[in-house]
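Justification of resources, computational component.

The compute hours requested in this renewal are based largely on the per-chain cost of generating structure records like the one below. Each record pairs the submitted sequence with a full structure-token output. That output is archived, and it is also reused by downstream analysis tasks.
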Amino acid sequence: QVQLAESGGGLVQAGGSLRLSCTASERTVRGYGMGWFRQAPGKEVEREFVASIGWRGTSTMYADSVKGRFTVSRDNDRSTVYLQMNTLKADDTGIYYCARVKAPFSDGTPFRHEYDYWGQGTQVTVSS
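The structure output for this chain reads:
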């Protein structure tokens, strides 16, 4: 059973930084692409793509809204994926989730349906 646990969220002022971590149980993410999504406040808001990283860690993708500010990376030895978030804005507020791509030996993808396991999320609040 794959279990993903996000951490590192919190309250930060606009312009500040946070580093999120996503740690997997055992070695269940080695060999898989991983992604970060977020859900802004509001019941009808869909979970949107933020960033992804391929299984080797050499290919990355970012949403236009975070390019140049966020950096995704991974440490396969620690079964952990990171999201470094700099120059945070109020619009970055939301619950951040990490997820594992279904297909092994995959690059990341911005499409939710291509992920099978999700963490419980970590809250990020950016005050303006």
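The longest strand covers residues 94-104. The CA atoms of residues 51 and 92 lie 13 Å apart.
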